[in-house]
Every structure is written in C-alpha cells, then in structure tokens.
Amino acid sequence: MNTTERSPQGFEEQLLRDLSAHVAQRAELASAGRPAGRRTRFLRGWRLAGAVGMAVTLTAGALAVQTMRLGDQSPPTASASEVFHLAADAARQQPELTARPDQYVFTESLATIRELPDRGPYRTIRNQLWQSAGGVAYTQARYRPETDPNGWSQLRVLRIDDPVDPDKELDAFQPPAYHGDLPTDPDELLRYLREHPVDLHLPEGADEEAVYGGESMAYTTAWSMLDGYVPPRALAALFEVLAREPGAVVISGDVVDTAGRHGVAIRMPGVIGGNLDLIFDRESHVYLGTRNSVVRNGKESLESASALLRIAIVDRPGQLP
C-alpha cells in the first residue's frame, strides 16, 4: 500500500446531497432530547461555483472568511507564472506512488461550505474518498462533520447525475483517478490535454463545440486532474502548462486553509459566475487545495474551500492507509 502526504480532491453534488441528508438525520436524532425551540439548522441546498457549467468537485477545506482576503488588491510578490514554476519544482521532489487499475486512490480532506448562498454559517466536513485508479469501478466515499469524530456516514457509491434529468444517475464509471500515463514534457502534455478534454457533463442545449474547442479547455482539464493522483514528473509538467495560461493572477495577502497552513492563491481565469483559486504552500509551494467564491450583485463571497490532507493507494474501498 502506497501513501504520501500530498493532497487530493474529489466529490460531486450527489455527495453533497447525501451528506446533507446524513447530517440532518443525525441532527434529528440528537435534537430529539432537546427542549422545543432549540433545534439546530444543518446543511441544505449546497451549490458550488463552476467553470463553463461544470460543478466544481468538492474535497476539502475550511478557510475562515476573515482569512480569505477575497479581492485583496495590494501588489503580489510574484506572478502566477512564477508561483506555478515553483510549484513544479516542489512537485518533482515528491515520492511517486504506483497503482494497478484494480486499486483505488484514497484521499482525505476537509471541506468548508456555506449553508445557504451569500448567508448562513460555514460548515466543516471531513471527507474520505476511494476513487478507482483505473476507472473500472464506481467512486465510494464517507464523510462526517469535523465537530463529530463519531459521525461517519456509511460508505456509499457515488454516481454522476444526468444533467438533463437531475433525478437520474448515469450508468458510467468515473474517469481513472490515477494519471500514470500523462506526458512529462509540458509541450507534449499540453497537446495531450487538448486531445483528451475532461467531460464537463454539459446540460442539454450547451454549445459543446464552443466549450470543448475553446483555448482554455486544456487548462480546465489540467486543473481538473488535481482531483486524482498525478505522478511527480507529470504533476510538474502540469504546473508548467498552467503557468502558460493567460489571465491567471496571484491574489496577494496571506491565505490560511482549514488545516492552518499558510498559502498563496492563484486565481484561474474563465470561471463563470464566480472565481476558482488554486492554493499553494507559501514556503514550499506544494499544492494545498482550492477555494471557490461566487459573485452576486458585484459582491464576492466565499462559497467553498478545500484543504487537501493526504493521498494513498489502497486495495479496496473502505481501506485506510
């Protein structure tokens, strides 16, 4: 069994609904013995910011609002390209994990999301995810409120929703979570990303030609791969590719993730209705996770954030490294 402290991502809106139901059920049980009028409201109606209609996968992180510094406009100390190059150097130093197609990429993370859009408290959830390394089985997951060490949900299978019929689940496995076949040369990797775009599961009527043929699609595919495991040399090439994307900017000011790690955030271009930031450790430039914010009526507010804790290769769902 292989393991390392690099970070993961993963999760879909179905998981959010499952988690909402799980937490609400526990709340009902816990509140049964409380006096009337003291019931606690829990997570409902979660929605994540997306790029070109894609629901951004949730994995981890609780960034306190006051530490987010959303919209801080003071001069950055480095360009986005420079940060990505430093992240590439850090990636090359990581130990490499190997996986068979029948194994699973295990990730553990913290997730912070807001109970209601633009208002309500933020909740922190611990997630454990088992994604098929070879894309030959469904993803499985369990999760709990960070405040309840004994509140783990049952391990359950995750499936992709049909964008045309939200109540229907598509009978298709997730893509491979182990990206062991990626080119390690940035030029070759960029060509590969253009030829193998991530499936955005666009809704009916979307202009697929415009979306998948757009220049930014390769970069969207690149950062989507951070949801799984990318070997060190390929990960370095991936960051070198992202360093070329026009419009990426450094958000200056200190960023502190839910694990208390200080980072630097790069805001990626092309996200509709909000912003996606990739976060790197301020000293080592190791990739830490993401944060998503929404913009409504000209105001930006944190929607969700991720703090990636660990990643490993295991033999079966439910197995811990």
What do these coordinates show?
By secondary structure, the chain is α+β, with helices and mostly antiparallel strands. The chain has one domain (2-314). It is built from 7 helices and 12 strands. It has helices at 13-31, 65-68, 80-92, 186-195, 208-213, 217-224, 232-242, and strands at residues 2-4, 50-51, 54-55, 104-116, 119-132, 139-145, 156-158, 249-256, 262-268, 274-281, 287-296, 299-314. A hairpin with a 2-residue loop joins strand 4 (104-116) and strand 5 (119-132). The longest helix has 19 residues, at 13-31. The relative contact order is 0.25. It comes from Micromonospora tarensis. The chain crosses the membrane at residues 48-65. InterPro entries: CU044_5270-like.
Number of helical segments with 4 or more residues: 7
Helix content: 10-25%
Mass-distribution shape: globular
Biggest sheet record:
10 strands, antiparallel
Low-confidence stretches: 5-17, 19-75
Instruction: Let me know the average pLDDT.
Output: 76
Question: Which value, in Å, is the CA radius of gyration?
Answer: 19 Å
Total separate domains: 1
